[in-house]
Give the backbone structure.
Amino acid sequence: MRFERLLQDGLVSSAVARPDKVALIAEDGTATFAELLARSTAVAAALQDEGLRPEDRVVVFMENSLACATAVFGILLAGGVFVMVNAQTKEDRLGYIIDDSGARILLSEGPISRIAVDACAAAEAPPKLVVARAPMDVASRGSDFQRMVESEGKPRASGATPSDLAALLYTSGSSGTPKGVMLTHESLAFVTASIVDYLRLGSDDRILNVLPMAFGYGLSQLLLTAHLGGTLVLERSFAYPAETLRLLELHEVTVLPGIPTIFATLASSFGASEKTYPSITRITNAAAALPPALHAPLRKLFPNALIFRMYGQTECIRVCYLEPELIDRKPTSVGRAIPGTDAFVLDDDGRPAEAGTVGTLYVRGPHVMRGYWNAPEQTEGMISSSDANGERVLCTHDLFTTDEDGDLYFVSRSDEMIKTRGEKVSPIQVENVLFALPGVKEAAVVGVPDEHLGEAIRAYVVREEGSSLKEAQVVRACREQLEAFAVPHEVRFVDDLPKTPSGKVRRKSLLA
């Protein structure tokens, strides 16, 4: 397994080895590796001319696009730190990130640049604004990104080292103020190489990414492509599933990363069709647990695909994966630690948890974050200790078990475990039963305060179109497959579930 010294070295190496190969295909353009490097180099020089200094933060407030990819590598080549912000972010949150990160420059594009203008104006120290393809009323408010791309400047040597910061990725902040995860060149380059290794990828692979690149899982698709010398097909979102499948077929995509909501939509909308997509050789899932009920419809749609069940956190990007050959024998497992790292479960006394015993998952390796930006106390709650070699150990605060083979099983986020009748119930345990019911498209389970039970279990279910599924049927199926204390006390049918920009279900919004 190899990994680059600096994060941008993957792009540089691929541009030397495969200059004329198409690196990226997006709505706003297509670029070979040589072209992407040239664009990024020009942007790096222009950013330095704008006053960017080593380790200065630059906010990237863009959609999935060629411009966004160029911005990321341009910032790295200039010696800066990119701060990815989801294109759906509102002005107040964007303003908070600008102030918290101390960003000197903000890059934006298209209609969302209006939000950037307002956020910059309200900032304590307004960053310089650079915009691409902006509306006319915005274009005059900042520098022109396209002129940067077309400039002929050469950047000065950045002086960056592997231990320097490369990125700040702000967490969703669903439980409080957003936190900036500090990731170094070393950590991101290492985890990128490790993922390539266990996914068994090569330079012939073509990845379709519909996940926001502001999300660690989406960003990693760009980094994988540069490292591999493969091809990335970028779609702005998963708003139109049929268009996603069209692009998949048009570009002979081989790798499809997704989250359960994406795969549930594909299974619901196209699972009954006889059409298949044989070019796909890898299906990867992270961000939320993939219900085993989706394995069969995914295999039908993508008959040649290996399905990789994975788990990760922004604080280290990826923790573990299950070898796809084991998926039928261990359909709910997320396997072992990624290559070059360690992941282990400790009980409440800090001792290794026995197989089947619920404990907290810890992660050790060079991919672990440096900490949270400007938040030393919160960092102490996550970086629990260092081993004898000085490596950071991350406490995920997520609950896991292991089996006799040592493979990992996600149980729950520690603050989502339901306590009812004196028993602890994992929402995932109940949701897996719900997902397996005919007519269920999506499901989420939460605990609601109850005077007698402590918490009562409430299930929210999104039915597939045309389904007449009733509450009594749902409860009956749960009684047949779950312990009595784990059966939902209430089932609510809804049109959709509230989600974060990265597609995770907002359980706390359901409670509200």
